[in-house]
Design a protein that fits this description.
mainly alpha
């Protein structure tokens, strides 16, 4: 009986230390997992902000592309106007040819000045 009581106190002490150690290890694991989750959440927020920025950039590029298409169409229209007056017609009426060329150049210059504002 004395043997059991003598070693029982050591057994209880070892058991308390083992449970305490296990709880401390689990607490460290939980803290590590919390830090990992916090890090991943910050990464998610950063990536979401980057995606928003990229979307905005893409929309801006699409707008620029649409404007460029419009400018190409206008340029093609100006080219067709200039080429509409054939060389023989220009020789017949040089004043009309010069007027049309000046008009076309003025339109082109206005378009360029508006585009650079």
């Amino acid at each position: 009986m004395q043997f059991i009581t003598k070693y029982l106190s050591y057994f209880v002490l070892v058991l308390v230390l083992a449970v305490g150690g296990f709880m401390w290890i689990q607490s460290e694991r939980i803290d590590s997992l919390k830090n990992t989750v916090d890090s991943q959440q910050q990464t998610i927020v950063n990536q979401a902000n980057e995606i928003k920025s990229i979307r905005s950039d893409v929309q801006g590029l699409q707008t620029l592309d649409a404007n460029r298409k419009d400018n190409r169409a206008e340029l093609q229209e100006l080219k067709s106007r200039v080429s509409a007056l054939s060389e023989p017609e220009a020789k017949k009426d040089p004043v009309a040819a010069e007027t049309q060329i000046k008009e076309t150049v003025n339109i082109l210059l206005n378009d360029i000045s508006e585009a650079t504002k």
